[in-house]
Amino acid sequence: MAVSTIEYVQDPLIFQKLERSTFFWRKMGPIYLQYRIQEWRLKDSSDEIKEKAWNELHQQYAPQVLALLLELRGIYIKLGQILATRKDIAPEIYRNYFSELLDRVPALSGTEARLIIENALGRSINSMFAEFDDVSIGAASIGQVHKAKLYDGRVVVVKIQYPDADSLFRQDIVTSKQFAKLAQPEQIPAMDELERQVLEEFYFDKEAWALDTVRKNIMPFYKNVVIPKPIKEFSNKDVLVMEYIPGVKLIDAVIVDAQRIARRLGTTLDVLQTGKFTTWMGVRNSIYTVADVSWSTMAGIYNWTLGWIAPNIPYAQKPIDIKNIFKTLVEVHGKEILIDGIFNGDPHPGNILILPNGKIGLIDYGQVKMLTKKERRQLAELMLLLEKGEGVKNETISFVKALGFQTEKNDDHVLYKTAVIGLDRDDEEACEGMSLQKYLEYLNEKDATKSIPEHLIMAVRTCILLRGAAALMGAGPISIAKEWKHLAEKTIKLYPENPITDNDIPTFVRE
């Protein structure tokens, strides 16, 4: 009895955590057992019988699993969002059910949101905001966002974290990993990465600091880029208030632009997607729908963070300047990484807005990575080698080995291609005539990747997501190394090979 009392004092949520874990296993245990029994029953059946039986089982349990995710919320919502986009992991029936989690996550009521804000900041809503919209404009796995107006007239968004989200996440991820070890043990490395990413998102005060820092690094040099200003006096670890940026998500803007082009051609978006028309940059290399942009083709580096969701607004009829928008996106992220050493590791199209005046809005700096001068120089040297291509392949291989790239067999060709695909390009030549996903499977079968230097993982993720945005926008295959060549050369000049001190990362201190 004394032990449990001590445990309760140390962790007042211990009973809630145990209850959540028990509830999960009580629901998922029998479902898992039914799948194993079915697997045994069907082992000698024909493919046709197997497919029919599995689909019936999926149809029976997918709604139950969705209900469980919605009941527990938190990390379970995020896991459902991942599965909704991963056809290599989840059956189609499950993906269809889980797609509800991508843009229809239930939000807390306005009354509950107000109470969270007041408890977190120790002030009444009316003392901070002249207006506060009780209807959330976006909800994700760990929190939600509301629109408000300050007394000075500025329109802001208020990002709130659900109570105890951090503590409950730590227990829930343990439960989730235990189930994954049982059901899909090959997914454990991905879940480890998810855990690292999500833990970064719980500190809204760090995000406010990152917004302010990157804003000062970028906006004076790129007049067509807008990054929201945090309102520090109304922000802390659990609440983030920042300027509201009116805009549409890049995905929505591209689709609206495609529909406009279709109308001018006297046809529809569906017809354009069939390839019958070849105008408009090859019809933007065929118009991509959200479903077409499969993040599962991106080396298993996931587009997981929904961030706060920008509301749709009427989009101007002026055509999107795809070329300049993408050039700016690549340039800005290159400067963040190579010159400034602090960058957003999650630049997916949902975190990029197109404003009514044509400017680019960059939001959600919850996953920020920082690089030392030495690390920036190393990356710059590698980018310059990759830009030179096959002519310096042996030199590139030696360099990536020295940096810490490793595969199971340390095959030179696989190591080289790992760096090329991760940081530079994934066009037909780079993938040796295969699709990206098929090529990644080929490399993995030949010599599986063992490790990528920790300080480069988020840079790799950023490069892959930028190329994904290029595909979405119809900007065609690109070479990040070529686009960043001038920035890499500048980095080499700025930072000496052996700096006297490399302890130059800005330290975020939480008061």
- Give the number of domains: 3
Oligomer: single chain
What average pLDDT do the residues reach? 83
Structural class: alpha+beta
Q: Main beta sheet, described?
A: 5 strands, antiparallel
> Count of DSSP helices?
22
Indicate the overall shape.
globular
Separation, N- and C-terminal Cα atoms: 37 Å
Helix share, percent: 40-55%
Indicate the radius of gyration in whole angstroms: 24 Å
For the secondary structure, the number of strands is 13
Note poorly predicted spans: 1-9, 275-317
State which percent range the strand residues make up.
5-15%
Write a structural description.
The protein has 511 residues and is α+β, with helices and mostly antiparallel strands. The chain has three domains: 105 residues, no CATH class; 93 residues, Phosphorylase Kinase, domain 1, CATH 3.30.200; 181 residues, no CATH class. Helix content is 54%, strand content 9%. The strands form four sheets. Strands 1, 2, 3, 4 and 6 form a five-stranded antiparallel beta sheet that branches. Helix 3 packs antiparallel against helix 4, helix 4 crosses helix 5 and helix 18 crosses helix 20. The chain is globular, with a radius of gyration of 24 Å.
Features:
3 domains; 13 strands; 54% helix
Give a short synopsis of this structure.
This protein has 511 residues and is of the alpha+beta class.
